[in-house]
């Protein structure tokens, strides 16, 4: 990304406290975007915020459990209260539980699916308000990238 390429844009990154999500958020911040990072761990968010702020604007850090609709709604409410818009949404939440694939208990699969699939769908729906109302995500990004949620 080019410095300033995303100035005046708001980028929401789920899973933004570690790994790929943190690096995506840091790249957007270095390119001038105001980032919003979402994670279930306040401790990880605090550490990621320092890393991201070293290269760009201080991110808005939101602690939320994206496995639940309430958690996704909390993200929407927080982004709306602070910025009243979302220009970019990156769904990156969902670390894989370590272990032998065949030995993972059923609940681990259910939790993983709730976060990786339902979390992505729910946060996309509440931010774009795909059910008919005015969403925070701008139509501009949907037109530029027809495969993106927003």
Looking at this protein, list some descriptive labels.
alpha/beta, 45% helix, Rossmann fold, four-stranded parallel sheet, 13% strand, disordered C terminus, single chain, 150 residues
Series of secondary-structure elements, N-terminal to C-terminal: EHEHEHEHH
Radius of gyration: 15 Å
What's the total helix number? 5
Spatial ordering of strands, largest sheet: 3-2-1-4
CATH structural architecture: 3-Layer(aba) Sandwich
Summarize the topology.
Elements: E1 10-14, H1 19-30, E2 34-39, H2 42-53, E3 60-63, H3 69-82, E4 88-91, H4 106-128, H5 139-144
Parallel strand pairs: 1-2, 1-4, 2-3
Helix pairs in contact: 1-2, 3-4
Note down, in words, how this protein is organized.
- With 150 residues, the protein is of the alpha/beta class.
- The chain has one domain: NAD(P)-binding Rossmann-like Domain (Rossmann fold), CATH 3.40.50.
- Helix content is 45%, strand content 13%.
- It has a 4-stranded parallel β-sheet with strand order 3-2-1-4, with helices on both faces.
- α1 runs parallel beside α2 and α3 runs parallel beside α4.
- The chain is globular.
- The two termini are 19 Å apart.
- The C terminus is likely disordered.
